[in-house]
Structures are given as C-alpha cells and as structure tokens.
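Example record used in the benchmark description.
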Amino acid sequence: MVKSTIDFIDIFSSKTTHILSFTMRVIIEPNYDKLSQWAADYVVSKINAANPTAEKPFVLGLPTGSSPMGMYKAIVKAYQEGRVSFKHVVTFNMDEYVGLPEEHPESYHSFMATNLFNHIDCPKENIHILNGNAKDLVAECANYEKMIADFGGIDLFLGGIGPRWSHRFQRAFLFTQQPHS
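Model output (structure tokens):
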C-alpha cells in the first residue's frame, strides 16, 4: 500500500491546492502483457460487479499513451468474447492536447477511437474527452469537472505512468474528483 495525495495544479497560475490524501494498492508486474491482462480483467470485473444501468451507469476514468494500449487490446477482446458490455459505461479521459484538432491522428480523441471506442459498444454520448480547442480552457476544465460531478464521481480511475512520464505532464494533470461510494 502506498500513501499518496491528489493535488489540483492550475497550469495557468502554478497555484497548487491539496484535494485529498488516500492509500492505493500498487501492482508491480514486470511482464507488460500479464500486467495489461490483469488490468483489463480488473476493469471488466468492476464493471460487471457494478451491474450498470442507464439510470446508474459505471463511470470510468481512462488514460492515454503507450502504457494502457495492451490493456485496451485485452478489454476489446473481452468485449468481443461477450464478457463485458460498455452500453451503460460513461468514460472520462484524463487529457487532450491543446490546439490539436480532434481528427488529427495524434490527438487523444483519435487515439481512444482507434484503440478502444471503435471496437466496443460504448455509446458516443457516454464518451467524454476534453476539448483542447476550446476558446476558454479554464471553462472547459470546469465544465468537465461538473460533468463528472453530475454523474456522481468516477467509479474507477485508471492512470498510466509510462517510461516517458515527465514532470511537465505531472504538473499539467488536472484531476479533482474524490472517490465516491
């Protein structure tokens, strides 16, 4: 178990606000394929255990980048095998590039469509990714947080920390949701 904290860091003013402290379980698996399968199985089990409905969807926070690609592949396989449905899952991605069009092949909108959303039954209206082209980025982030709150928070949040995880991305990470029951 690792004790950790979540701080909100305003990337425009560099002001840091402490949000919460928590203890998390850390899984160390030296084999990427085994770790990816374990993570996918964990996601599938949490969704299925929640028995989501249209009235009470399962809210899933998702990462991008190279770390989760194996997990996404295993999740798609689980969906194809009929082991999970995303019909009543609502997703929130943690990031998007500022100024990159959504249809650009390197945007996180494109990444998520290619690696997950185009291969599962998650309704488009249940998929939420920040708008990196919003005229007011602060308002975009505030609205995103409000949407998360309107769903009652995030049931399961996945974070990827790959080999290129850098201080600048850590400082830009904006996540203020507290876990809920």
